[in-house]
Amino acid sequence: MKLLIGGLWADAASGREEDVTSPFDGSVVGSVALAGREDVDRALDAATEGARAWRRTPAHQRMQVLLRAAALADERAEAIAQTISAEAGKAIGEARGEASRSGELIRLAAFEGTQLYGDSLPLDANPGTGFDKVGFTVRQPVGVVVAITPFNYPSLLVLHKVAPALAAGNAVVLKPARTTPLTALALAACFVDAGLPEGVLSVLTGAGGELGDALVSDPRVNKISFTGSTPVGTRITQLAGVKKLSLELGASCPVIVLPDADIDAAAAAVALGGFVNAGQVCISVQRVITHPTIAGDFLDALVPRVERITTGDPRSTDTAMGTLITEQEAERVERSIRAAVRDGATVLTGGERDGAVISPAVVSGVDPASPFSQDELFGPAVAVSTAADWQSAIAQANGTAYGLGAGIFTSDVSGAVRAVRELDTGTIHINWTPLWRADLMPYGGLKGSGIGKEGPRSAVAEMTDVKTVILHGRPW
Ligand code: NAD
């Protein structure tokens, strides 16, 4: 497939292309153009022009374009799901679930683009000369937004950036993950076919490092919206200079199971929350912290459930869990599990690799200070440890560099309220795991998990600038 440069399909300046392959069997799924620095230049020139025209398009007209794109995403949902499953190895049932949310997410963003309200400023509340003046704020699009997205939700994570940015009146240059470019191009086609004007949307497929560095350091860019790993996010902060920046980064999400919890319900939720998309979700359950008195019962309830998760060919509806994104990633997860065992942990089930598939694993007796707890795993394994009291459970949950999501299972409302205050994470779930998201909710991490919030309303706020306007009357 071609690049999208300013709304027009185009070959890469170099003429180079590369194959996109299935992580399950290595078969060729498609091919994409390999963008280079010249294409970055073409896309940013187009975006600079496009941003000027699009911001002058009234919000209700922008909304109509997005609503048409949403309808096309609905119509094409099955094809998008097949593409996600083929290039990401995601089980087809999960891929259909993801694709089915695309149209609604665009509609949510389309609406938020019409809600660019400002504030009226009570200037006379300050001592001074405020009484003869009227002040208010207006919001306007930031201009050119660079969106850089990861592989794990190739539709939703693209749309969480592109749709609010367009709805708010910005031009966007999207750089999707190298492993999952076809989904991004299929979504871009929905916007183009919906009548998005030229200049406003570009999609550059190719190598993250080369394209990413050129995009984030370019002075024509007003805002960078990045979702991906913490190392790449950190590099972006070093190259970006003075630009607006949103970062949705890595995590090692904890779940606390207290003695007064419904143990069975907690086990059922963890058996889901640790293994959706083969654990390749930033809000996946990586760590479970239980009280020692219930650890045995919890594991007895968890392990058989995890053993029932079917793996294999992502195209089959009998497969619940597909592959990791590459065989190398599966090897990395396999090595991490082996290292945890060397650090004293026990594998109760799973952890075996077959190509890019890892069987769902439960690992108990994990040292909370070990890399298996501290570093993001991004794979289908849950690490179980114990904490003797409430305070140490919270300390363990908070005891990593990350702070994206957390869950706590308890029947005590007061304890739940206390946990809300004390857990250092962007999202907290009472009696569920962090692996739950409504697309409209504010979503983003604390600490090393990032900067800023997504969700259409928050993203539109972050993709607009606030200007303050003061009307000066004569003193009277
Ligand atoms: P990644 O960081 O390897 O890649 C993300 C994107 O950055 C890709 O498009 C990649 O090509 C690009 N990139 C690579 N080098 C770059 C550079 N130097 N400059 C700019 N861009 C560059 O991440 P991934 O492996 O695709 O995704 C997995 C990671 O994403 C995990 O760490 C996961 O936690 C994180 N993630 C976070 C959230 C969240 O909401 N916090 C959501 C999903 C995924």
Automatic annotation (TrEMBL):
<dbReference type="InterPro" id="IPR051020">
    <property type="entry name" value="ALDH-related_metabolic_enz"/>
</dbReference>
<dbReference type="InterPro" id="IPR016161">
    <property type="entry name" value="Ald_DH/histidinol_DH"/>
</dbReference>
<protein>
    <submittedName>
        <fullName>Aldehyde dehydrogenase family protein</fullName>
    </submittedName>
</protein>
<dbReference type="InterPro" id="IPR015590">
    <property type="entry name" value="Aldehyde_DH_dom"/>
</dbReference>
<dbReference type="InterPro" id="IPR016162">
    <property type="entry name" value="Ald_DH_N"/>
</dbReference>
<dbReference type="InterPro" id="IPR016163">
    <property type="entry name" value="Ald_DH_C"/>
</dbReference>
<comment type="similarity">
    <text>Belongs to the aldehyde dehydrogenase family.</text>
</comment>
<dbReference type="Pfam" id="PF00171">
    <property type="entry name" value="Aldedh"/>
</dbReference>
<feature type="domain" description="Aldehyde dehydrogenase">
    <location>
        <begin position="9"/>
        <end position="469"/>
    </location>
</feature>
<keyword id="KW-0560">Oxidoreductase</keyword>
